[in-house]
Amino acid sequence: MSDLALSKIGGLIKAPEDLSKLDDIRQQFAKEKSTVDIKLSTTTDSQIASINHNLAELNRTISRVEEIKADISKFHNTYDESVTSVKDYDLIRKMISINQFMEQVTSLTQDIRQFRKNLERLNREIADETAMLKEDLRYPVPNILIIHYRYTRVRNFADYLEKYSQSLSDDLQSLVYGFTSPVRETIRLFDELLNECIISITEAVKDDNFEMLYKVVGIVLWEDKEDTKISVMQNLDLVRHNVNKDYNDFRSKRRNYKKFFFDKFKLFFEDTFNSCVEHYQYEKIGLYGDLQWLEEELTFVYKYLSPLLPKDWQFGAFTEKIFYDKLHQYTMDMINLEPPAEDILQILSYDKKFADYSKQLEGSAKSIIGADLKETVLDDYLRNITNKMNEWNDSLIKQETTYFSERLKAPDIYPYDQTVEEVDNNNVPFELSVNISAFVLPDFKTPLNMLKQQADVAAESGYSKILVAVIENWCNAYIARVENFQVVVDEEMDRYFTVFSNEKFLIKESKMKRLFKKRPTVVNIDELSPEEQANISRPGIVEYFGALANSFEISGESITSRFVDTYKEKVHTNYHVKISQAFESAVASSNSLNSDVCIAISNIIINDLYVEMCKLFTKQWLEDGMKQTGDAMSAAIMSETIAEYLSELRSYCVYTIYQNLCQIFLDKFVCAYIKIGFENILYGDGKKINPETQGYKSFASRVGKDAELIFGGLQDLFTDKDRQYLLSTVSAIEILGDLGTSPNPMETFPSIWEHHILPVFYNCSTDYIKAVVYSRKDMDKNQWKILEPVLKDIKARYHEKVAPPESPVLTLDDFEFNV
């Protein structure tokens, strides 16, 4: 008996009185046993039925496997028969091919007969669909997909015929091409329909016409897939023309409708931009103030249109590049036109605005000048600007040269406020403001205006090196003008002295020719008519020299006072030296030109003095001292001539030019006076100086009188401050009296040299003493050989003890006297 039964019996019989219930317990157990038997029998029957069913299914499976084996055996037998019966196989294949060909010919015959009719119907459908879309952008082009289907079959059919005809004769090829030629009109019509859809997409989507977009994109995607298939086949060299191939699916080459889609969109956007450009054709800079539509269009494409298109098309970036390229090109064209500074500023302002906008749109700032190429673009801009600047400068040089050489009218007048340095009665310096009507060259300020315009534009670009390069190029152009004028001055001086040279009045051995850079070819002025003289050297040369010097002096002052500090503030300190050096070189070149001009004017004045200077230190000169009036004396005549020149020059020359001219002239005049006088003694009519001669006939008295006349005739032409230089230079003539008449020259000359000459002429040439030594009756060259080293030693010791003066007198620094 099981533990469960025992447990249950134990639960029923717990006390002795429970034994009386054994019959009831026995009956209860009998019932339970009967119930269990019934359940067991039912379960067993179910399991047996399932087993029988499974065995039946297994029998059926075995039967099917046998059938499959039989079929495989038949397949093997068929294969063996086909391999062993090749002749029959080829025959079957040929029969099949012939049957296909017959069916293809029949189909081709039917399609050829209906080709024109079907083509005309398709053309009408395309035209109708195009017209409906042009009338209403909300038109969903419901027929475009079926039109594309029919259009594709027509093109495939035409491709098939044309490809097949390539194996035929030329005549038959012509017939085939003539037959398929109407398809080209169908292609044009379909392309027109597709183009109209493409250019209408943005506006259609704005009107919620999404159906047209999806249909067009579907067509483009399908065409792109077919193009990819044909490309793969061509790359794998698997393209073979099978005459039996279904021509409805035949393609011989790519149709590139994806490229068509993007090209038409590009053309549409470009036309939109070009329309805006055309609107501002007369005010090109105005376009930058009216580009809100462009930003709105890009925003719409990025936010709404691009997400509706395939992601790999990157349509937003594609559209942005179209507008960017157009805007970039337009900007570069604008820059190449050399717009004024305010226009460049507007371009740069919009460039920043567009960069900020593109950063919001794409996440990265983009410059319409080109982020990566901005420096290169600005270099190109600089190159264009500098090239134009150089071209303009070359043209200006030619104009200025012609104007200067022809001298057809008086120079232009320019009101000029200048500051003149002066000293009062107590020798205290102060400044005077003086206004004069200065002679200048026409439009002499134009180069400065050009500098300001271009430099301001370059400064606003934000690139220091661009500004520096513009300034350096302008300075180089400025220096080129200066160098041209230096050549012009030389040529004008050569022409002038060809006609008006007075060297003929000097002695044959005169060394005055060294005053001129070139030895001119002198003609006899008396043999020339006024017209011939004018053709060689036109009148007005001194006035034009003054105008030339004034123009560059005023320009140089403007550069120093207005431009140097202004543009240094606009660049990094690393570039300050470059800017300073560029401007300094320009100003230095103009100062050099002005010095050349002052030298040229001085030479012209001195040339006019030769008639009187040829009498210096001669018997006639000594006899002038016996005359009761000084008016007829050579020195008086010379001072009168000089005063006439200087007074006129002072009326139209700016103070700095006049001051420099006077200094250069006085230096040259005094040296010429001394040189010519002593040459007359040694080689001409003059007699050597007799130091024992006294009275008005003495050499000292005579040179003293000349110094007095020269100073007296010229002092009113100088300010109190500048009159000191006049006094110093004239003293070089007066000192000659002491040197020419002092006793014991070997002892007194060193003393005069140290205490009277060097304190005035700090760097005086020893040739100044040499000329006196050779011209004194009581001295000779042997004494000079002894005296010269003594003077040089005194000069060296004097320079060691005494510092150079702040305003040195340069008159005798370069004095030369060759014996």
UniProtKB/TrEMBL annotation:
Pfam families: Sec6
Signal sequence residues: none
Any coiled-coil regions, as ranges: 98-136
Keyword Transport recorded: yes
MF term (GO), any: SNARE binding
GO biological processes: exocyst localization; exocytosis
Keywords in alphabetical order: Coiled coil, Exocytosis, Transport
Keyword match Protease: no
Any single GO CC term annotated in Swiss-Prot or TrEMBL for this entry: exocyst
UniProt superkingdom: Eukaryota
Entries under PANTHER family matching the protein: EXOCYST COMPLEX COMPONENT 3 (PTHR21292:SF1), EXOCYST COMPLEX COMPONENT SEC6-RELATED (PTHR21292)
Family, similarity comment: Belongs to the SEC6 family.
This protein's name: SEC6
